[in-house]
Structures are given as structure tokens and as C-alpha cells.
From TrEMBL:
It comes from Dyella flava. Required for the insertion and/or proper folding and/or complex formation of integral membrane proteins into the membrane. Involved in integration of membrane proteins that insert both dependently and independently of the Sec translocase complex, as well as at least some lipoproteins. Aids folding of multispanning membrane proteins. The lineage of its organism: Bacteria, Pseudomonadati, Pseudomonadota, Gammaproteobacteria, Lysobacterales. It comes from the Bacteria. Pfam families: 60KD_IMP, YidC_periplas. PANTHER family: CYTOCHROME C OXIDASE ASSEMBLY PROTEIN COX18, MITOCHONDRIAL (PTHR12428:SF65), OXA1 (PTHR12428). Interacts with the Sec translocase complex via SecD. Specifically interacts with transmembrane segments of nascent integral membrane proteins during membrane integration. It is found in: Cell inner membrane; Cell membrane. The keyword Cell division does not apply. This is Membrane protein insertase YidC. Residues 67-357 form the Membrane insertase YidC N-terminal domain. Keywords: Cell membrane, Chaperone, Membrane, Protein transport, Signal, Transmembrane, Transmembrane helix, Transport. The gene is yidC. Residues 1-22 form the signal peptide. The chain crosses the membrane at residues 368-388, 431-454, 474-491, 512-534.
Amino acid sequence: MNQTRTLLMFALLAVSFLLWQAWEQDYGPHPVNESATTSATNAAGSTVPGAAPSIANGAAEGTAQLITVTTDVLRLTIDTRGGSIVRSELLNYPVEPRTKKDPNPAPIRLLDDGAADYFAAQSGLVSADGAAPDHRAIFQSAQTSYALASGQDALNVDLTWTDPSGIKVVKRYTLHRGSYVIDLDQQIDNGSGKNWDGNAYRQLQRVDRPVPVYSNFLQRISDQSRYGFFGAVWYSPAQKFNKLAFDKFEKEPLQAPVTGGWVAMMQQYFLGAWIPPAKESDTFSSAMVDEVGSAPRYVIRAVGPQISIASGQQASSAAQLYVGPKLPEVLQTVAPGLELTIDYGMLKIFAEPLHWVLAQLDKLTGNWGVSIVLLVLLINLVTFKFTNAQFESAAKMRKLKPRMDALKERYGDDRQKMQQAMMELYKKEKVNPAAGCLPLLITIPIFYGLYYVLRDSVELRQAPFFGWIHDLSAADPYFVLPILYTIVMLVQQWMMPATAGMDPTQAKMMKFMPLMFAVIFLFFPSGLVLYYVVNGICRLLQQWWVTRRHNEPQAKAA
């Protein structure tokens, strides 16, 4: 297998990968709203495993208000109905890249109370025989606006609920400077004159993402956000990381006792996760809620152990909420296994080392594009011996082309004899036609691993390079890099004709290779195309050096 066959196989694999992704998104399973089977359950509320009462959905009576809480990295909106966090804006992550015309674009809104993108972090208490505020109860707040002051490291937001029976609950959120972790403490004071028994719960509720509208097929396959997992996930030390797609909520509902785990809703780059105390035994469950006049909502919940409080005593229930970007070095410190939400799929074994190397190079250069260029140089240095063997074999094959053509003329249509004769010729001249296979085994994992890194690493989201490249995770807006790579391929074909040792059909296909790659790379992340432009130039220089070395003895002999 020579270099041209390697490129052909690589192109076919890349095209197949794109088509497979598009097929999965367009024709794979999607959530089904089977209201006939769920309406009875949802009308009364979803029964909580491990707790006597049920957690109801819908609104309680009373007037609620919205509270704004601002830190250096977050701006939250808390609804006093349930004390739920209904909006979260990530101040360091704008929707669009910053430009001179718009230096302060709107930040990403992860939690959202809009009907089309509804996503809320809810919490509450339930009790079988006593008063308890669930996520519908009306709380009171002393202020409608809170802000982390200069020099202040932590900010407390207290919400209070009281019942005529004497039960009082203070729900306290604590936010920290520079952190996306929010501490939640629910303190229960029992002044009812009798024992109070109940459970604390935390849940995430959201709708499926809206179906995007595309003008054509190529625009659809170039949208990298549609290929990442969007749905519920959970983790336990015993069962590790698990996904729960929205279309599986009714078919494979979650119900599991877990100690030391967490539940989350994730999407490309960002996630929201409830993290109970590490030693607390919770029950994880899922539910599907039908909302009148809107899309169905999906709930993943963690219910804590029973809390028993004697009259005149108090107790509390604590948890943490993470609402932010999927940064591996941050997630590792928040909870065990939370970094697994950076979903590299089956290519994790290749993607994680590539991300680590890129991150280290970025610390040196301060530019992810420059880091990609340096990564190319490092990989070419490591694989120099193997790629050199590939080009050496290709150069020898080129020398043998006249003799191979003669064999074709001699044996005509007898392909078996022709193949035997060619193998004898290879053996005699010490040519290994399979020398191109090993570089392929290295190239393909790097290609797909880097593709997942560019697609799912939030550090590369809107990361600029130079000039016209303002986002390495998006396609080249002016198609400069795909054109450069096409030129590199044409020069390679000119230096090393692609038809040596090929049958006519393969030779014709190879002539279309530059055009095929141009089309493929038009819609790939520009960081990935940058990698292959620089890699192509490195290989071109290596090919030129090998070819010159083999041609010099012939020139001297002539």
C-alpha cells in the first residue's frame, strides 16, 4: 500500500464518518411524547423512590418574584417560587465571539426559563405527614438583588419559608469568587410540637433542544453542536458514567440507590449538575413531565435519606450545584467522575492525551492555533521514521514503474500471474508495498481524536488563531485553509505521480482526491484543517527530501 492508497482510504473513512453522523441525527431515535401513558402519572406528580410522598409538578398558589445574583463569573436568576435557579448566564462565555464592533456580546445562558429552552435547577423538601416546601412553594427574600463586592470571596443568598404549623425552612445559596460551584443548604427548624420526618431532593428539569433549521445538507453536517450528546447523565462509584437520552426516559427510566454520585444535564461545552454529599445515600430517578401547551420536560432527580427532627430541634441538608463550562481541570476537583461529561466517546484514549498536550502547549504560547502547529511538529518528529519509510517505498515504487508496466503488458489479463511477478520484483528490489500502512494507523486515530477535542473542548470554543480565524472550533469562514490543503495535495501528486502500481480505476479516483478533500474540509473545524495543512506541508518537505535523495544518484549516473 503506497501513500496514495493511504490518502484514499483516509478520505473514504472521513466521508463515511460525516455521513454516519448526519444519518444518526436525521434518522436516529428521537424523543416520543406518549402523553396517553404518562398523563395520569404526571398529573399527580412523579412518585419518589424512597420517600412516602410524591413530588408534584405545577404551580402553587401565591405571588413569586425574581432575584438577581451576580458574581465575577455568574449571573443567576432565582425564582422565589421554590427557590429554583431559573437562569444562569456565564459571563466569561459569550454567545458570539468578541469583536471591535461588539466587544461585550451577550453571555451564554445555560439555565433558562424560556419555554423553548427551559432548563431549571430545582430543590425542595417533602414530608409524608408534615409541612414541607417543595419546588412549588413560595419563599421570601430580604432583597431582590445581590452582588459579590470587590474583595469579597463568598456571597450568601437566603430564602425563607414558614408554615403556620411552626415549620421554618431557610434555603441558603452560597456563591464563591471565580467558581461555578454553588453551595445549597436547606436548614429546617421544627417548631411544630411534634416530630418531623421528610426528605430533601434536588432535580434538574429541562426540555429537549429545539430542532435546528438548515438551508441545505452541507450546512447541516457542518454544525458540530448537533453531534454532541444532549441529555441527562449520572454517575455512581459502582456503575460509573451513564447517559440517559431523552428518548430513553420512558423506555429505560432511572431508579437506582447511589452513594457518592451525581446527576446532571449536559450539552456541548456546558453542564448543570447536582452533587450530593460524598457519603450520603441517595435515590436517583428520572421522570417525564407533560406541560400543557409546551414541549415535554425531562427530570433527573436525587432524593436524600430520611431526615428526622424532634420538636424544638433543627437539621439541615446540603448539596452542591455546578453550572458552568466543561473544564477538565475544574471538574476533577468538584466531584469524582464529573470530568467524564467531556464526552470524547470511543476515541477517549486518543483525544485525552491530545487535549493534554495542546493544553500544555497553550500555557507556553497563549494561542491554541500555535499549539496545534507545534503539536503537528511534535507528532511528525515522533513518526519521522515511519513516514520516511513510506516515502522511501513510494520513491522505489516510482523507479520500478517502467518494469511494472512491462509486467502488465506481458501478462495482460492474467492478474494472478501478474501479482506473483510483482511480488517477486518487490522482493528482489527490497521494496515493501505495505510501508504506508503504519502511518495510516497513526494518522486516523489522531484525525478523529483531534476532531473530538476540537468539537467538545470548551477551551477551543471561539479560540482565535491569526487573521481571519476567530474560532478554531468552527469552519474556516473564507475556506482559505481547505484551499491551501488542496494545493499541498496537488503538489504532492505532481512530485510523486499517483498512478504507480495502481489499476486504472484507482488512478482515476486519485485524480479527484484534492477536490474530495477540499469538500470535506470546507465544513470541518478550522483547527482540524490547520492541523492537516501544517502536517501536509511537513510531509511535502519530507517527500521532497526523499525524492531528491533518490534522484541524485540517477542524475550523476546519467
